[in-house]
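Figure 3 (text version): structure tokens given as input.
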């Protein structure tokens, strides 16, 4: 019901047909989705593809059929989102994803189960991805991207948004170090997780081996234990880090690492802390760290566990004992 010119333009403009999205609305209409997908694959010609697959479908054979149809076209996929209900469906994606890689720039992998398949980790990516710059793993182990990622700029490790347990996800620190040191990462975000030290030699060293991440600009730890944060800060020198945001409960002792090694954070300008206890003994390591960070221009304090920040903190901030009459943070421009 459109003009002939409108129809010809729409059919010939291949990029209009480059989006293939299987969401929950198609779960009971797979044959209809297959017809639609074939039309899109034909009309998209050689355009790069955006593919989003919600594989919360009852029949595993339907997932296999969909992936078999997509397989010849995955070499031109630039963005892939996979929501798998379980490991068998994730393995189905891997079985047909051998062409995936040359054009891939963004990869999101979500597995809706708390049971890790450690015997046969599912790595959907099997060939080099020279353009891959964004990865988000939701409830999935690091082995899900067990390939070289030289162009990686953003890495997110998060718990599944529908997970109702307080259990955190364990990540191999050795695998994380390998990924971070073999890419030019600019942003790292870890949510509801902790780090496992799997090499006893690394745990028993008198002093840690320090690796430099020259491009890391932003760092976020959300509901990550203080020991894991301390291990991360002990291991990496972060000359380009401008902002760090941490939400890890009452334990603030990870910040002692910042006070001990300020030379590893020369560019740090923003410190954003959530759910901390600044009363009592918790105030001391925090203030000592601030003495080592005179370059800070922004300080954010949210959701203190006691409900208040306390006047003592502002007294110290406004007139530090070792520099009476001067601000503890002389370059501070924003206090939230």
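Below: residues designed for each position.
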């Amino acid at each position: 019901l459109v003009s002939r010119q409108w129809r010809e333009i729409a059919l010939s403009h291949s990029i209009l047909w480059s989006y293939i999205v299987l969401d929950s609305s198609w779960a009971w209409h797979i044959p209809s989705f297959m017809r639609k997908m074939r039309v899109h694959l034909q009309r998209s010609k050689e355009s790069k593809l955006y593919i989003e697959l919600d594989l919360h479908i009852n029949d595993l054979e339907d997932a296999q059929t969909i992936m078999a149809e997509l397989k010849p076209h995955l070499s031109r996929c630039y963005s892939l989102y996979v929501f798998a209900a379980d490991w068998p469906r994730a393995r189905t994606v891997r079985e047909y994803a051998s062409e995936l890689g040359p054009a891939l720039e963004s990869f999101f992998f979500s597995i809706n189960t708390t049971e890790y398949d450690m015997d046969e980790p599912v790595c959907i990516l099997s060939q080099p991805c020279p353009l891959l710059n964004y990865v988000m793993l939701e409830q999935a182990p690091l082995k899900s991207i067990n390939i070289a990622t030289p162009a990686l700029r953003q890495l997110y490790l998060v718990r599944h948004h529908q997970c109702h347990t307080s259990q955190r996800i364990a990540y191999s620190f050795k695998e994380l170090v390998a990924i971070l040191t073999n890419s030019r990462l600019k942003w790292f975000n870890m949510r509801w997780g902790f780090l496992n030290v799997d090499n006893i030699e690394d745990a028993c060293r008198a002093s840690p081996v320090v690796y430099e991440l020259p491009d890391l600009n932003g760092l976020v730890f959300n509901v990550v234990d203080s020991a894991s944060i301390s291990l991360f800060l002990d291991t990496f020198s972060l000359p380009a880090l401008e902002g760090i945001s941490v939400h890890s409960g009452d334990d603030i002792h990870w910040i002692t690492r910042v006070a001990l090694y300020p030379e590893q954070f020369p560019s740090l300008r923003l410190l954003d802390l959530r759910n901390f206890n600044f009363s009592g003994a918790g105030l001391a390591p925090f203030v000592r760290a601030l003495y080592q960070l005179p370059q800070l221009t922004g300080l954010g304090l949210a959701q203190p566990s006691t409900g208040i920040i306390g006047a003592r903190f502002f007294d110290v901030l406004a007139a530090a004992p070792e520099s009476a009459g001067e601000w503890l943070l002389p370059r501070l421009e924003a206090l939230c």
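The longest helix spans residues 30-43.
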